[in-house]
User: What shape does this take?
Amino acid sequence: MAALAALLRESRRAVIFTGAGMSTESGIPDFRSPGGIWTKMMPVEFQDYVSDPGARRVSWQRRFEMEETWSKVAPNDGHRAVAQLVASGKVSHVITQNIDALHQAGGVADEQVIELHGNTRYAKCLDCGRRVEIADIRAHFEAHGDAPDCADCGGIVKTATISFGQPMPEGEMARAQAASLACDLMLVLGSSLAVFPAAGFPLLAKRNGARLAILNRDQTPHDRFADLVINAEIGPTLRAVIGIL
Ligand SMILES: [Zn+2]
Assistant: This one.
């Protein structure tokens, strides 16, 4: 913890990169981990979602079933610590693989969060990008048995997440690349750095001369590149680090 505090003190512009481990402390399951949802239930691939109304119905039913979970989860100590580091001016951006919007709920401004895998709290038209609220889609689904098409352009509406097989969001990828190249410290929190291309950003920062610190419950395949690896819980560790900053 003293070593992480020292890295933060020496940094003038840090970036935080977060993965599923950040939110498991809020009670959100890690979908990809052993026992996670995607090991029990095949995810709906993007191509099927676009081409098959039945796949869209399955996907929406699953999303509605998750609504109770999503509505109950709240930011944890780790999210609050991250928000504190951003508010201090030390951290320029939070790049996240999570779709739960808990960084924003924890107090990080929208424009400082880069959501590589999107956001499950709302939906978007795949053609024109119009935002649609999940509750409105649910009401339509319950009345008509399927989700509505876009009211503006008739396009297919989908949760604002990036599904398996769906292209990565260009704007977010560009912002993540710029933030990674501009930082002098990349702090990875709760990511096993196994899902690419997202996991490439900490490695890009390191190759570009930034220091790399990884705080994760388990080892990652990229620990050998890191200046510091801490295998511990995020919330308590970050709180302690901020206490000695
Ligand atoms: Zn549209």
About this structure: The chain has a mean pLDDT of 94.
